[in-house]
Amino acid sequence: MSEGIPLNIHCVEEVSSTMDVAREMVAASTRVPFALLAGSQAKGRGTGGRAWASPRGNMYCTICVPEAMVPAEVMPVLPLVAGLVCRAAIMELIPGADVHLKWPNDIIHNGMKIGGTLVENDGTHLFIGIGMNVAVAPPVTDAGRPATTIHNIAEAAGVKSETVNPRQLAALVWRHLFTTVNDNTITRAELVRRFDAAMDKSLTLHRRNGAERGEETLTAVRLNEWGHLTVRKPDGSEETLMADYLF
Ligand code: BT5
Q: BPL/LPL catalytic domain spans which residues (predicted)?
């Protein structure tokens, strides 16, 4: 049990994208909440139409939750919560691992990308997509940062990497997600504080223009109460970003 929500994971082999198949499952009246965990994806997607490389060996999961289950305090920062629960899941498997977050949706180790999250909705349900590299770090072909894997992090930490697998990781993400969603004492301010504390503020950031990176070098300064990121520019001035994605 995860804070009253029994684990409900559907495991499949290759799909186009777990986001699309999860929507079809809702249309076919699959019991929600559920998680769809795929072995690989032919058309995995990131934000803004970018591709998510999805070879076998990694975790490709969409958790579908009725919108009505998510409290008003959590809803505006749900994309940040998605990153927080992924980090918590990895750190439960590899205690003390140096796992950080990059606003708004990346999970990072030593400046390399372990995974990313993508939140979509259909008006009544939320679809929380999570891709995490467990065993395979695909080459990154655009201006994104290099990829790493949870197995690499485990080995560096002296944890047997074969003890970390996609199914187990998905179950931990599920538990951390529903623990947060069902905590009726949690506030938006607290979730923002947690994300701020988990950010790697030493990273050099760039705006994304499609597959290109913007020239200006930015650094993360702080989150505001809505979880928007204030960055510092090379001339020392600050700007608050709302819907931008960063490389
Ligand atoms: C994300 O997008 O980081 C969100 C990724 C969400 C993927 C999951 S998998 C399950 C579910 N089903 C889907 O179809 N999607 C979700 P974004 O921040 O836009 O990052 C995309 C960028 O990450 C690309 O442009 C590359 O630079 C880089 N990238 C692509 N595949 C990668 C990988 N496997 N590991 C690390 N970096 C990758």
A: 2-185
